[in-house]
C-alpha cells in the first residue's frame, strides 16, 4: 500500500488518482461514501473536470467527437469544454469504474451519496446503478443565487449582418492571427481579458463588439479602413446597464460573488427584434445528489445488526425541533366499525428529513413569499358538518383540539436549510498559500449528509476531497474518514481543515498570511474534534 499523504487516528488522506488509490483499499472497510466528484462539465476550464479527460473510449462505442448542435461548441474549440457524446460516455465509464471500487470497499448495505451536475447527473446515476448499487433516492439541493449562462439569441443575430461580409472578415482575422503566431484563446485573453471563446465567435459567426475592435485591430494589425465602419454599423444601441452577480453555477462554485455591470442593448435588425427575449439556458437553481445503497446481506434488520449499515439515521437529521407528535386512531372499517386503541406517531424533535434541501437565502425568499403559516389545527372549520363524520383525530370534534403541536412559520420550515457564505475569505472557503478551491460545498450540508448515512463511530470514504469539506464534516460528526485528492495544490487546504478540528496551532501555522483560514478558525463555533 502506498504511503498516505497524511494520517492520524481519525483521518487518512491519500494523494493520487482515485482509481489507483481505491484499488489499494481493502474490501468492506468503509461504512459510507459521501462525495462530490467532477461533474464532467469542464468547470471554469479546470482540467480535472473535462469529460473528455476521463479515459479512453473509441468511436467503436457508437459515439461521436462532435458536440450537440450543428456548429462545434466554441468552448470546446477553445479547449475548455468537451461536450461530444464520446466525451460524455467516457465520463460515464469513468464514474462506473470508481463506483465499482466504492461498492467493493463499502460494507453490505453501505450508502453512497454523490453530488452531480444538473446536465451530467444522468450519466453519474446510471453508472452508480450499473456498478451494482440500488438507487434509493435523489436529493435536490435548491439555491437562489445561480447566474444563467445563456446566449442572447437576438444579439447573436445582430452580430452577423451579411454572412458573406462576415466570412471575408473572418478570413482576414484568421490570416492576421496566424501571422502573429497566436491561438484563438491567446487573442481572446489579450483583447477581452480572459481565455474565452470570443475569438472563436469572431472567426465563425459574429463581428466583435465595437469596444473590442481597437485592441483587436492593434494586436493583429488589422485593416481599420475596411472593417472599422462595418463593425461600428453592426453595433447595437446601448439602452442601459444592469447589475448581475458573477456566481456561475451554484453557491460555492466559481469566482467570488461579485457584482458586474452588463450593457443592455437594443435590437438593430428585424430578425433580431423577432428573437428578442430568447436565450439558451435556464438559471441554475438546483444540484442533484444521488443516493445509492450497496445490496443488503439479508433483511435490513439482519444487515444493520451484523454490519451497522443499511439504514438512514432519521432522528439525527430531523428538521428543526418542532414537535410532530400526533395521536392517531386506527380505524378498521367504515363509520364506527372496529376501532382499536389510539397510537402515537411523529417526534418531539423535528420533522422527518426530506429529499429537498434549501440554501438559506432561498429559504428566506420562500418564507417572505408564503408569510406565516400554521399547521396542525384548523379552528374555524372544526365542528362543521364536514368534520362530524371525518375519521382520525378530527372525528366528531366540536371544538378544536389540535392533534399535534400547531407549528407555524414560513414554508421553508418543512425542509433542512443550510447556510453558505460564498466570500473567499469566509470560513467556508479556506485559503492556504493563496490557493482556495473553486467548488466548495457548504460544511453544514456535508455534516447532514454524513450523519444521515454513517453509523456512530463509522468510516466515511471521500474519493474526491477537494478542499476537504467532507473530511471536516466527518470529524465534526465523530466519524473516521479516508480521503483522496489528486491535485497537489489542494492538499494543504485539506490538511488545514483537519488541523482546525484537531490541532488549531498547526492550523495557524498553515494559514500564514491567509486570512481565509484565520477567519475559518474564529468563524466556526465547533470545538476541536
Ligand atoms: C468538485 S471537487 C470537490 C470539492 C469539495 N466538495 C469541497 O467542498 O472542497 C472535485 C475534486 O476531485 C478532484 N479530482 C478530479 N479528478 C480526480 C481523480 N482522477 N483522482 C482524484 N481526485 C480527482 C479534483 O482535483 C477536485 O478537487
From TrEMBL:
Organism whose genome encodes this protein: Phytoactinopolyspora alkaliphila
Highest taxon of source: Bacteria
InterPro entries reported in the protein's UniProt record: DNA_methylase_N4/N6, DNA_methylase_N6_adenine_CS, RM_Methyltransferase, SAM-dependent_MTases_sf
Any Pfam family: N6_N4_Mtase
SUPFAM superfamilies: S-adenosyl-L-methionine-dependent methyltransferases (SSF53335)
Classification lineage: Bacteria, Bacillati, Actinomycetota, Actinomycetes, Jiangellales
Keyword S-adenosyl-L-methionine listed: no
Family to which this protein belongs: Belongs to the N(4)/N(6)-methyltransferase family.
Keyword Nucleotide-binding tagged: no
Name of this protein: Site-specific DNA-methyltransferase
GO biological process, one term: methylation
